[in-house]
Write a structure and sequence with these properties.
- The protein has 309 residues and is an alpha/beta fold.
- The protein contains seven helices and 13 strands.
- An eight-stranded mixed beta sheet has the order 1-4-7-5-8-9-12-13, sandwiched between helices. A three-stranded antiparallel beta sheet has the order 2-3-6.
- Helix 3 packs across helix 5.
- The termini are far apart.
- The N terminus is likely disordered.
Length: 309
């Protein structure tokens, strides 16, 4: 009898733990307390591999610090970072890089949001699906996540004190390719609409492209990627890269020339040294001052001012 009661009690305790999430699988990365995080899609996939921090001791340090390399992201989210001072009304959705295999979630994510919020910009960090979620045409998953994220931000514009006509994107490496892909694939959703957020435009109002990949095809003598078709509706863009980038600076120059041909306002900054994957961590290299150039550019295109000011 005692054994029966013990087993019954254990079952109830176990069920209670599952129902309250005590036994739920903990995400490999979570934002700091105080930041709203929303799932991108209504239903999380079942039987997906566990999200992991794939950083190893062999990874290179950036500006003397390690980088969190988030892998196996199957349940994408957006996390809200609100301005630390006066809210200027603009919002930027940040796409970390990682070759569509991992996400450099701090170097090219949370640290970028800390900078943006310090200049009065609302930052939304997109944790998009990896690995093998892009680029087009290999997979459309990451671009689906990007399209959905813009619609969700605009759907929450009033609540988050955002001007829905000043929603931009900022991406690094594969995330920079994702920003360019979104800038050229916004007229049609790549998925069936889910709710009111998908009835809103997913065209970004501006794009910041930092050391992009996949925009020029090295196997075709750095010809422009035909999947990235720039038109006069592509948003104004800011591009930065270095000539010694092993991912190849032609990714920037090809995209800039396509923007120029379509008469899309664009600003490009090329530097001699810096390599790849520096984020916005300051070093002695001039390229790492690019955030100040972006801030100046955003003011020049009237994205850091409230409408009517």
């Amino acid at each position: 009898m005692r054994l029966h009661l013990y087993v019954t009690a254990l079952v109830f305790i176990t069920l209670a733990c599952y129902s309250t999430g005590l036994f739920a699988q903990k995400a490999a990365w979570e934002p700091a307390p105080g930041h709203l995080t929303l799932p991108l899609w209504p239903h999380a996939p079942s039987n997906a591999p566990a999200e992991v921090d794939a950083t190893t001791a062999k990874e290179n340090l950036v500006a003397g610090k390690p980088v969190i390399r988030l892998a196996n992201v199957s349940n994408p989210t957006i996390t809200l970072y609100q301005p630390s001072g006066q809210n200027g009304g603009a919002a930027v959705i940040v796409f970390p890089g990682g070759a569509y295999r991992i996400l450099a979630i701090d170097l090219e994510g949370t640290e970028v949001c800390d900078w943006l919020t310090s200049i009065g910009v609302t930052c939304v960090l997109l944790k998009y699906r990896v690995p093998d979620s892009g680029p087009l045409p290999k997979s459309s998953a990451a671009l689906e996540d990007a399209q959905r994220s813009v619609g969700m931000v605009r759907a929450h514009a009033a609540e988050w004190h955002i001007d829905p006509q000043r929603v931009g994107v900022l991406g690094f490496s594969a995330g920079a390719h994702l920003a360019a892909a979104l800038s050229t694939h916004f007229e049609n959703r790549l998925y069936d609409p889910i709710d009111a957020a998908d009835q809103l435009s997913c065209r970004p109002d501006f794009a910041v492209i930092v050391y992009p990949g996949y925009l020029a095809l090295s196997e075709q003598n750095f010809a422009a990627n035909p999947e990235i078709h720039v038109t006069d509706k592509t948003p104004p863009s800011f591009i930065v890269q270095t000539e010694d980038d092993p991912v190849h600076v032609e990714n920037s120059t090809v995209y800039f020339l396509a923007l120029k041909a379509a008469k899309v306002p664009a600003e490009m900054h090329l530097y001699a040294e810096g390599g790849h994957g520096y984020g916005l961590r300051r070093t002695e290299l001039p390229v790492t001052a690019w955030p100040q150039l972006v801030e100046t550019w955003m003011r020049a295109i009237h994205m850091l001012e409230r409408a009517g000011s």
